[in-house]
Amino acid sequence: MTDDLQRCAWAVSDPLNRSYHDAEWGVPVRDSRELWETLMLEGFQAGLAWIVILRKREAFREAFAGFDPVKVACFGPEDVERLMANPGIVRARAKIEATIRGAQIWCEMQARGEDFAEFCWAFVDGTPIQRPGHGFVATTPLSEAISRELKRRGFKFVGPTIVYAWMQAVGLVNDHQTGCFRREPVAALA
Fold first, then answer.
1. In the chain, N or C terminus with fewer CB closer than 10 Å?
2. What is the mean predicted confidence (pLDDT) over 157-184?
3. Is residue 165 part of a domain?
4. Exposed/middle/buried for residue 102 (C-beta within 10 Å: 0-12, 13-18, 19+)
5. How confident is the model at residue 163 (pLDDT cuts 50, 70, 90)?
6. pLDDT by residue (tens digit) across 57-94?
7. Taking a C-beta distance cutoff of 8 angstroms, is the pair 173, 27 a contact?
8. Which of 25, 36, 50, 121 is catalytic?
9. pLDDT at residue 135, rounded to an integer
10. Which of 36, 42, 121, 166 is catalytic?
11. What is the spatial distance between Cα 131 and Cα 98, in angstroms, rounded to a whole number?
């Protein structure tokens, strides 16, 4: 079944991409756990197409205890081996270990009274950036600054390109193209 809605170019060819684009991409996420989950999945995406991660997302959620940072922070070497044997996810030891460490950092932030959502949204003063809707960028000075801060805190697989893709996904920036049927509705959520 096809429709005649205009979408961002990346979302046109695959039904799963279309569904993700139409329902999730760019919608502001204010939940700390969900922001962390998306950042971790973007890290797994490094070197791969996002559609690979979308196709494996439910398996990732199952393998990583629903991306509950408190549970993932307790994962040990046996969990790393279990995850390395799981064909449903991307089996990259460094990314698995980075996710576990990312959960520990998330928990450390919470223990200090620093909410991950407040931390993330502070970079844009709580309001999504509305990009012009034309042209493509892979990084911005802001994604570079966020990347530096995440790395300073110990996060891995958070380079400026990954961070910018995450910013787009969680609505820190509205990058829907001009003419995309989601551009204005997402902007209205700001």
1. N
2. 97
3. yes
4. buried
5. very high
6. 999 999 999 999 999 999 999 999 999 999 999 999 99
7. no
8. 50
9. 82
10. 42
11. 30
Residue 2 has a pLDDT of 54
Number of domains composing the chain: 1
Q: Kindly name the residue from 20, 36, 121, 164 that is annotated as catalytic.
A: 20
Phi, psi of 145 (to 5 degrees): -65, -45
42 is catalytic: yes
What span, in angstroms and rounded, lies between the C-alpha atoms of 106 and 118? 12
Q: What is the CATH number of the domain that holds 70?
A: 1.10.340.30
50 part of the active site: yes
Q: Give the residue ranges of DSSP H helices in the chain.
A: 15-23, 32-45, 50-63, 69-72, 77-84, 93-111, 116-122, 141-153, 160-169, 183-188
Which position has the higher pLDDT, 101 or 134?
A: 101
C-alpha span between 160 and 141 (Å, rounded): 9
> Per the domain annotation, does 113 fall within a domain?
yes
CA end-to-end span of the chain: 31
